[in-house]
Each structure stands twice: as structure tokens, then as C-alpha cells.
Design brief:
It contains two helices and no strands. It has about 150 residues and is mainly α. It comes from Cinclus mexicanus (American dipper).
Length: about 150
């Protein structure tokens, strides 16, 4: 009897010891999960800031590009007027050369503007993807009963 009582007492003691260790493990897992969530949020915030800075840089470049295009347009209009006014002189050849360079410069700026717009669109898509991933994380964190 004593052995049976000792056995049952020891097994019940083990049961009490395993329960606190489970809660300790659960607490540790919960801390790890919270730490991971915090790190993930920090990374997301850093990525958003990077996209924001890049978007601001693109916007600034687009504004500078627009100013440059306006200046070239004004210069082009003046050059065309001079070309139409003079015919057959040496200076008209020089002005014609300047006009072709101006057209090439405008084309180059237009290509650059297209590249910047593509980059801006890419940033918008990355931002949208980030928001969707955040929503997915929030939905995945909901308890199974609530789902």
C-alpha cells in the first residue's frame, strides 16, 4: 500500500510540475511571438520610410524635369522663330543644329520622365502589397474560434 500511495503521490506531484512548465513554455512562446511581431512591425515601418523617401526623390526629380522641359520649350520656340526669319545664311545652319540638339534633349528628358513614372508606379504597387500583407497578418493572428 505504501508503495502504491507513494507512486500515486509522486505521479500527482509530476502532474503539478508539468502544468507550471507548460505555462512557462507558453509564456516563453508568447514572448517570442510578441518580439517577432515587434521586429516585423519595425521592418515594415523601415520599408515604408524607404519607399517614402524614394517617392519624394522621384517627385522632386519629376518637378525638376518639368522645369527643364519648360525652359527647353521656350528656347525651342525662339529658335524656330529665328530659323523661319533667316534663310540660307551660315547662322541658320548653326541654329538648325541647335534645334536638332534641342529636340534630342527633349526626347531624352521624355524618356527619363517615363522611367521616373514607372518607378513611382512601382513604389505605389510595393506600398499596396505591404498593406495587403499587413491585412493578411492581422487576419492570420485571429483565433481559430473567431475565424
Amino acid at each position: 500500500r505504501k508503495q502504491a500511495t507513494a507512486y500515486s503521490t509522486s505521479s500527482s506531484d509530476e502532474g503539478f510540475e508539468s502544468k507550471p512548465s507548460l505555462t512557462h513554455k507558453a509564456k516563453r512562446a508568447l514572448r517570442k511571438r510578441r518580439k517577432l511581431e515587434k521586429e516585423t512591425k519595425q521592418l515594415i515601418k523601415q520599408e515604408e520610410l524607404k519607399r517614402l523617401h524614394k517617392a519624394q526623390a522621384v517627385q522632386r526629380q519629376l518637378e525638376e524635369l518639368e522645369e527643364r522641359q519648360r525652359a527647353l520649350e521656350i528656347f525651342g520656340v525662339e529658335l524656330e522663330r529665328e530659323l523661319r526669319g533667316e534663310a540660307g545664311t551660315q547662322s541658320s545652319l548653326l541654329m538648325l543644329h541647335q534645334w536638332f540638339e534641342l529636340v534630342m534633349e527633349k526626347n531624352k528628358l521624355m524618356r527619363y520622365e517615363s522611367e521616373l513614372l514607372i518607378i513611382a508606379q512601382e513604389l505605389e504597387l510595393e506600398d499596396h502589397q505591404s498593406r495587403l500583407e499587413q491585412k493578411l497578418r492581422e487576419k492570420m493572428s485571429i483565433d481559430g474560434k473567431s475565424k
